Amino acid sequence: METPTALPSLSEKTSDTLLGDVRTTHASDDVRAVDLKPILQIMDKILHDVGVINEKNGDNVTLKKNTTLPPFDHGMLETILADVQNVSGELSCNCPGGEDAHATTLKLLETLKTYTWNAKVVLALAAFTANLGDYWLLLQRGNANSLASSVAFLRQVPEIERVNTLREEVTKLVQAIRNLAMLNAKFVMKLHWWYFSKDTQPITDANLEITRAAYWTIHSFVRMASLLGLRNKNTSLTTEAGKALIIQLENEVSQIYDILKHHYKSCKVYIDKEIEDAYQSLLKLMQRPGGGDIVAILNRFLCGQGIDKVDIDKLRCKNVLFLITDLDISLEEITLLNELYEKTDKYEIVWLPVVDGLYDKQKFMELKAHMKWYTNVPAVLEPAVIKYIRQVWHFIKSPIAVVLTPEGEVSCQNALPLLWTWGNAAFPFTAETEKKLWHDRYGWRLDFLFDDVVDPEIRKWIAEGKLICLYGGGTMDWIQQFTTGIKVVFARIGVMVEMVYLGKNNDNEWTGNVIKKLHGHNIRVLQSERLLWARLRSMLYLYTRMSQGKTLRKHDPFMQEATKILAYDAGEGGWALLCKGAEVIVRLEGETALNIIWKYGDWENYAKRYGFLEGLSYYMEDQIIPHNCVQFKLPFVSSEIPGKLECCECGRQMEMYYMYRCLQE
């Protein structure tokens, strides 16, 4: 690919002394990552809504009502808005050009010292845009609203007539600044920062020019803010002088844009080639006939160029389980893996965190602190390694565990469903071992689903043959009505039943909200709710995969029970299982559950004759209970497609779909 033609740099107007002063404002050892996309969206909304960029006519444009703002991570919002507010305050000061503008620019850079140079520009523009929107609101309402007029005077907002005469020039300048901010954001979001630590061409040239451009861009913001903020007649600029300054600033910003665009293209060509070359090298390493030394593979995955080499000697001649996750892996999952890991010496676990440049450092360290296996790994892996993990091992979002033999061969592309289902008995995680485990299983029973890790007390109740009520899903009203109603029935017939709420699949915060809002109902919940659902999904996935395309029939007890729980939970209503020991006797769903409980008088004689659960079961067999055919979701696991299923209600074969679910709530 042809290298773009070089453009003049900003070196002519940036002395070594000035560049040194600029660099001293940057804390390179603690660079804070920022998700710039929502900030850019908010900035665009402000620029679109203010009259300054209305190109159709000279009329003022009012703010749109009920416009939805983009989703924003509140943790990140809290950490950066204080800095943006400080920059906004500095820009609001009526600082003229020259030395005062230089001093203000350095002060703003100092305020933004913990961000990358590109992010500094975007955040400074966010502050400038907020001030612009603030000014424009006051200008629009000043003539008709005395409060707005008074605030405009105190804020030294210029007269609207004067600003309207500069509309065309201001519009071009704001558009140029916006384009420059978007380009700076592309450096952060499109080019992997991993390569910007390398002392090679064209990275070094780009880093130098980015630093210079950050200074001069923010310098332009300061001068523009000065122009907008001057109102006093003794110091205000004339219209012609104002136009000349704005045109000058627009030319400067456009020149900076052209220079950075040249470096962006050069860096993109270079980085794309580096990633592709490293990826092809990794493919050759992993495709060697007969495998290779596991240490060579570990070195390649963990010790990419630019990352300190780690000590992996203790992993030599070991089966290695690559635990591949983002930073959303739960502490419950880590706890279970810790227990499994400490009970065996057959394999080692190595964590491969898949994060891009934007990640929560504190959360990364907290997760590492809870892990008892090998975590001496870089926080950000080499981009080619991440590309391999995603394209070859099909990692998307859900954690996977790739198993490598001591010879470096992949023996299992995802062992997590096996570990959640069988524990260490699944080692060495081969298809033959899995088939044997299923052949030896003792059918669908609660003690196959619950163990001491999920909830030791439930395990004890099962062993003692107690009556157990397991329920989940539902709305707050359903949970309250069901809990109250069934406790009344239990008290009336004088039986002791242990009740546990199992929460909802794929909703980690729901149970906490239930406890908070229904605290007076003494709702007992699982100790490891997320693990239960992960195990249930894993069991069904493995069981259907084992069928190798055969249809699993309605009468299969395992398929029936597993699909019913997942299908019940996928609906809006609640559900309940009434059990005796390890056996599920009665299943109740949604409104049917409430109707059956509150009509206890209708089946009281059944309960007295046959016992509580048996009597209820006989009564329900005599009733006409409507049912709905089921649907549910299984997570995408590597590239494998599970087997076919029949509906557990009507017996017809179920259709399969791909579903893409946005993780932003």
Automatic annotation (TrEMBL):
InterPro entries: SEO_C, SEO_N, SEOA. Residues 433-663 form the Sieve element occlusion C-terminal domain. Residues 16-288 form the Sieve element occlusion N-terminal domain. Coiled coil: none annotated. This is Protein SIEVE ELEMENT OCCLUSION B-like.
